[in-house]
Amino acid sequence: HHEKHTEHGAVVRDAIIGFADGLTVPFALTAGLSSIGSSKLVIIGGLAELFAGSISMGLGAYLAALTEKKHYEVEEERERREVEEMPEAEEEEIYEIFQPYGVKRETVRGVVEELKEDKESWVRFMMQFELNLVKPKVSRLYISALVMGLSYLLGGLIPMIPYFAIPNVTKALFVSIGITVVMLLSFGYVKAIVTGTTRKAAVWSAFQTLAVGVLAAAASYGIVRGIDKA
Amino acid sequence: HHEKHTEHGAVVRDAIIGFADGLTVPFALTAGLSSIGSSKLVIIGGLAELFAGSISMGLGAYLAALTEKKHYEVEEERERREVEEMPEAEEEEIYEIFQPYGVKRETVRGVVEELKEDKESWVRFMMQFELNLVKPKVSRLYISALVMGLSYLLGGLIPMIPYFAIPNVTKALFVSIGITVVMLLSFGYVKAIVTGTTRKAAVWSAFQTLAVGVLAAAASYGIVRGIDKA
Known about the structure:
Number of helices of chain A: 9
Oligomer: homodimer
Order of helices and strands of chain A: HHHHHHHHH
């Protein structure tokens, strides 16, 4: 017997998230800009947003993960200090951890005594069960940020290819819409599957992902048309 | 004695994140587009990206949180089934939870016996300590998504105001840069402070946030100039 958990590669998950995000905003922007009628403008605006967005996403993810790591280290240091300087208070916190589950003090006392024997274990126990913090792995920070930034770039680039290949902007727009609808549905589905949902939930996710893309594109198109006329 | 944890309002945190993201990509895009020389184009492209981005961000956050909630419910249902049908295996898992912290089996046995008395408590214990999953609150999903989408909108709108107010595109660009540099530094700082870091780390975060904005804007500007000339 073993639990089936959602332990798919975190890398795959980052790629899916970056890709799905890249499919939405750059597509919406190019769809809106296309209504002005210039392929060159669509490509300029689209690529500018795409590279700015992937830099922001990749670097942003890296910095956020770095902050989490620092936060973990700060809290770990604090727990070490408290285990040294205020052990009775820390012991009391162990009782408080078990109290909501109906486990009596006398029963927990044995656990408390054994945890106290090894201060490093005690600290790790408090990090996990009191603060609910997991130790972030450094190498994964770089990989995660790189994967997310690059997959955002790829996700946004594919719907733009028609504008490079097809001179007529309106035709390019329709091909772009076709490609993007298929990709939004596919990736909405895959995104849900890799987080361990049922097939039914994944189909629902596919249409939700499509809906977000459609709404974003409609807003973008509406704004461009509205301002262009005014 | 009480632990100083990073329990600032989740709403404040969402607002900070949305705002900081909104400051980066829309600003980068408008800075790049400004090099073409038309205020109207900057406003059109900027607003299109802004609304598409805030819709994508807000709705995306909502859908992701909904998926997490569903995931929690699926796992909770599985644990309930396993507690009913395979209690010995679940008991074994409790021993495995404590084993890395050096707590002996005989000591844990008392905890196991008391957890078994109330199946709901037992399930909740496994959710928390085996799967490390926290029950998401529904109301916060809506608020979180709304706050993130709206603060992205606000974050992106403020650097664009000069383009509405100042007819000369280049002048507007410089004012926009000035406003955005100040805001990126401020919000990089505040973003770190609300997650509980030291002042020194917050200053570092301020400059990192600025750096991401500068890099994104430089990429955008470079691309627009490069393609416009080609």
